[in-house]
Amino acid sequence: MGEREAAPMMLRRLYTFAMIGAQPLLRRKLRRRGRAEPGYLEHIDERFGRYAGSVEPGALWIHAVSLGETRAAAILVEQLRKLQPDIRILLTHGTATGRAEGERILRKGDMQAWLPWDVPKAVHGFLNHFRPRAGVLMETEVWPNLVAGCKARDIPLALANARFSEKSMKQTLRLARLARQTYGTLAAVWAQTDADAQRLAQVGATVKHVFGNLKFDATPDPVQLERGREWRDTLDRPVVMFASSREGEEEAFFQLLQSEDGLEGVQWLVVPRHPQRFEEVVQLAELHGLTVSRRTDWPDAPEDAQVWIGDSLGEMALYYGLADVALLGGSFAKLGGQNLIEAAACGCPVVMGPHTFNFAEAAELSLAAGAAQRVPDMREGVLAAVAWASDIERQLAGHRAALGFAAAHQGAARRTAEALLALVGR
Prior knowledge:
This protein is an alpha/beta fold. It is 47% helix and 14% strand. The chain folds into 2 domains: 3-212 and 411-423, 3-Deoxy-D-manno-octulosonic-acid transferase, N-terminal domain (Rossmann fold), CATH 3.40.50.11720; 222-408, 3-Layer(aba) Sandwich (Rossmann fold).
């Protein structure tokens, strides 16, 4: 074995020792998170490569770590079923919200499980149990032992809808030799943007194509969207939504609502990113002296309150239909921003903060299309959203621009599905 092959192997051994040593910390983390989200306490043995029962081999395995990746996976699965109706899916996850969302995708014959901790024994247990015919990692999740295990069994493994920020690239290059071996072993990489492709190439990936973002192909629930718009038509004030708000951002937001003049004539809607924080956000709003109404308490229409809290899952289309303008969560703290494409598909323009590195190209394209506005901080964001929502002509122009922006970038789902089926020989 030459020096070029030996160095990455040694690094992977050191990485494996570290992962094995961290297993007790993983169990502790699962117990802690399970107190807020009981889903983390289910099927814990699967995290360590132990799976119950027997399964029929040959499913197409798709790994979607969390909520956003699972929603992207749903779009891909829908397109795969159009092209190959009898396809069987194995869906794996890393978070409880991802697994709960993934249940909506499953059909008879499909399977769902936790992806195991990335140590060889657990990876072998997973691959030996399910024996998938091919695997797809959604967006960002690339694990050295998992990739090596697939390679050893001749299981084609692709990275789809791949995004790779500058920050992620710098972190990955700290272990450059291991990264290049891992990314270089993937059978195919399909990137969202040219910039993602260039960064992935720097860590050793062979990017086959740049297909765009699968999330542009999502179709909002028309019933939810119409219901939200009907509720909006009953109001005599503009509605501004804080979409997918994150911890640390709501504090500054509620403080502004309490202290800033000129915000009284607006209906505020806050939809936290993580469901385990619904109660926390309600309490935080009330702590700032704001009256609150929860979506789960509404019978047929929103109840009167200064702040509505969207404390339900799977109803983002309803919330965007109800809103005139949305503030983009995750963009006002250094978190990279949440998905703005869903807002655009619903015709809701967006005001974003300075931090959108998770969706950098989509953010710039939406700005150029007139579907979004960028601001330097939360205060400027709130004021800009109020001004936009209060201007009827500008609001309608933003609505049209958002729909046009979303429609102009569709097609990634079919391109990815066709490439994936070609990869596995169908």
